[in-house]
Prior knowledge:
The protein is α/β, with parallel strands linked by helices. The protein is built from 10 helices and 7 strands.
Amino acid sequence: MGPIKDLGRVFDRVADAYDVGRPAYPDELYRALGELSGVELDGALTVDVGAGTGIMTRGLRARGSRVVAVDPGAEMLARLVSRSEGGPPAVAAVLADGNALPLADGVADLVTYAQSWHWLDPVASIAEARRVLRPEGAIAGCWNFNHAAQAEWLAAYEARLAEAVPAYYGPAVEQWSAPPIASAFEVIAERWIPWTRLVGIEDFLLDLRSHSYMAALPPEYADELVERQRVELRREFPEGMLPVPMRVYLAVGR
Length: 254
């Protein structure tokens, strides 16, 4: 993965599914972020690059950060804004590209890429992050992943996707790995954080629809694929709730 044309439009097409279906991050992620970065989240000015519908933005804000949320998708940002209204600290939503941040030099304590850095230019994006950071600031990238190796049903689910979706990239692909953001930093700390997501089947399938490889499919084919997954998941979990083993990869540069 890497820079693609009209990235904002790709995810704007699935903004509703993204907003409802994508998982949040566990509390331990934010504790680790503060520990590894040395940045106190309460009161920090954080630039959340590729903020999408605001999953990381809301988590940072709940911990006292003032957030500048940057994203190239107008529909994604519209949902972020609607869910961020009311109460301090403030959120500033900026329609922009993470490779060219419309911010002054040296203004931020923290720059975060939550599920987003792999879409950016690996050199230009980090150069921009360094430019907008204060001298003691930090850069962090994190990704939520299904931990398919921890559950047979989840491994089978991912295998069905790999077989049916040409652009699929995930745990069922042998060469799959976390994005190489660590190679972009001079000083790096990394952590894997396991957790379990309890989610209903329908929201889990909305998460599936929010991925770029699904957005690229013809709508009828995507619908058929989702229905096949629904049938298998309901057979495995007739009560309708899924205990999804997850893990978050966090990389921090200071």
